[in-house]
Amino acid sequence: MIEPDVAEFAGLAHDLGHPPFGHFGEEILDEKMAEDGGFEANAQTLRILTKTEKKCLVENTQLGIDADGRDKRGGLDLTVRSIASVLKYDRMIPATRGERPDNPGPIKGYYHSELATIRAVKQNLGGDKGAGTPFKTVECQIMDIADDIAYSTYDLEDSFKAGFIRPIDLLSAPEHVVKNVAAKVSESVAKPISPAEVRERIRAIFFDVFAPPVKGLEGTKMTEPLYEFVHFNSIEAANRIAELYAQNGYYRTDLTSKLVGLAVRKVSIDSVDSAIPVLSRVEFDEDQRINVEILKHYVYESQILSQKVQMAARRSKEIIATIFDALNSSQKGYLLLPDDFKQIYLALKDAGLKRRVLCDFIAGMTDRYATEFYARLTSEAPYTIFKPL
User: Fold this and answer.
1) β-bridge partners, 65
2) Which of 71, 112, 214, 261 is buried most deeply by CB count within 10 Å?
3) pLDDT of residue 217
4) Residues 41, 104 contacting (CB under 8 angstroms)
5) Is residue 34 assigned to a domain?
6) Residues 6+ apart with CB under 8 A from 298
7) What are the residue ranges of helices labelled H in 248-299?
8) How far apart are alpha carbons 290 and 9 in whole angstroms?
9) Is 19 a member of any domain?
10) Is the dihedral of CA 368, 372, 378, 383 positive or negative?
11) How far apart are CA 24 and CA 365, in angstroms?
12) Residue 78 lies in a domain
């Protein structure tokens, strides 16, 4: 029922569509493509695998575009089950911003340009028989759960390493942060989670890390001097432990491994679909899922919304917007494209698909390449214009 190779493929491939500067790049590209299907990282992953990667040579075409301007590219020519393993969201993204006035940001799904591919995948795997039921294969579900676990653990570890937060900060988070986390977790799990429960669960998750450092006092009557000794000794020890986990890579990875292990052991097969086994359901224990969602949203509130990251966000959006506008310029901006992208751009007839090619080019950049491309356009760095990009 479960194909381990396909599940591994899904894990390796699912983030291919992330543009430079991650979600910040995603947001600005979605704005630029608002009237041409938007931009979304999962949709871009699917497009890369099924269309833009160059493996299948289509004869009598201009790099896969036929004489009538139709896109005949086949990407990596993957099996339908491999393609299905990265289809996290079973819905087509609306073609224009006007069709989604209440949701101005990226909408998760797939582009209209991949609709025929998705229909073929569903037909071949039997998913077209379950009308009204979201299409999500067992390998895709495993990848999705693994992604959430990774977000809640490895991103947390990165936050410690980068100095955004220390482990002890989790126990003393500001009230507004805890309230925001509680609200987002409640929405994610469709169940009310109070700020008090968020704090209690964080304490439980990190109990072993911040266990009382004074041993042998069980059952001892706590006089005021002894209470002060234990209390302040505990605070001092907790701070030392927090610094140790923040600064020492061995301790950080040990903590991450424990959190991953706790989560993975709570994943199981919920139900087997005897008619269409590939659509059997994988279950994440509800209690553990809540813990994962709490850590995930806490990382977002403490890191992504921090001043340091928001400063980088503004700059990264400016970089991506400038590059897109230059390429999309009426002054033959497409001439800035590499030769292969330029040939595809010119072979396509539809203006929206042409802009999608510009978007594909930018989405495939690394942070460094995008920064250098921007610098060439704006003369913000002393690169010679003759140095190859």
Assistant:
1) 62, 71
2) 71
3) 46
4) no
5) yes
6) 156, 170, 173, 177, 181, 202
7) 249-264, 286-299
8) 27
9) yes
10) positive
11) 14
12) yes
In a domain? residue 14: yes
pLDDT at 52: 95
The residue segments making up the domain with residue 329 are 4-139+307-378
Q: How far is it, in rounded angstroms, from Cα 327 to Cα 380?
A: 18
Is the model's pLDDT at 104 over the cut of 90? no
Q: What does the alpha-carbon distance between residue 211 and residue 36 come to, in Å, rounded to a whole number?
A: 54
Confidence of residue 388 (pLDDT cuts 50, 70, 90): low
Closest alpha carbon to 91 in 65, 110, 118? 110
Q: How many domains, the chain?
A: 1
- Residue 196 vs residues 54, 181, 187, 193, 377: alpha-carbon distances, Å: 52, 11, 16, 8, 51
Confidence of residue 83 (pLDDT cuts 50, 70, 90): very high
pTM as predicted: 0.85
Torsion of Cα atoms, 220 then 226 then 228 then 229, to 10°? -100
Q: Are 359 and 33 in contact (CB under 8 A)?
A: yes
- The residue among 122 and 385 whose pLDDT is bigger is 122
**What dihedral angle (degrees, nearest 10) is formed by the CA atoms of 104, 110, 111, 114?**
180
pLDDT in tens, 197-251: 999 998 888 776 655 544 554 555 545 554 454 445 566 666 676 677 777 788 7
- Return the bridge partners of 282, or none: 269
Task: Count the neighbouring beta carbons within 10 Å of the beta carbon of residue 240.
Answer: 12
d(CA 154, CA 162): 12
- Tell whether the model's pLDDT for residue 99 goes beyond 70: no
